[in-house]
């Protein structure tokens, strides 16, 4: 039997190193049960934890946090990180901003062609384009 502390998904935790400790990895995977790529249904248990804002070696402390880590299955992590389309664009994503009227606890993905998708615990749905685009 393994006893683990209760995870409060309403709070955020951070560390200064690149690799998250188990307590932060467990928190992120509890918050996001699946890969956060649009329409992906792979479990977050085996997913890579991706820094939404890229980790900077000499950057500020606390970059590895439950607010900046999201599970991406290996296929989508590699595609997001290494694959550019012939247009020179990549898939990008960011957490939503509830103060701007966006739903809380979700991410918005933008495809290389400019299409946007909202992903939350309930799944994926199309999202309107950026204003002015």
Total helices: the number is: 2
**What distance lies between the first and last C-alpha atoms, to the nearest angstrom?**
54 Å
Task: Kindly state the number of beta strands.
Answer: 8
Class computed from helices, strands and strand pairing: alpha+beta
Strand order of the largest sheet: 5-6-7-8
Shape verdict: globular
Unreliable runs, pLDDT <50, ≥5 residues?
Answer: none
Estimate the helix proportion, in percent: 10-25%
Radius of gyration: 15 Å
The secondary-structure element order is EHEEEHEEEE
* Mean pLDDT over the residues: 91
Strand content: 15-25%
Q: What summary fits the major beta sheet?
A: 4 strands, antiparallel
| Number of domain modules | 1
Write a short abstract of this structure:
Keywords: Endonuclease, Hydrolase, Nuclease. The protein is 14% helix and 23% strand.
Could you characterize what this model shows?
By secondary structure, the chain is of the alpha+beta class. It has one domain (14-127). It contains two helices and eight strands, in the order βαβββαββββ. It has helices spanning 22-31, 74-82, and strands at 14-15, 48-51, 64-65, 69-72, 92-95, 107-110, 116-120, 123-127. The strands form three sheets. The chain has a four-stranded antiparallel sheet, with no helix packed on it. The protein is globular. The model has no long low-confidence stretch (mean pLDDT 91).
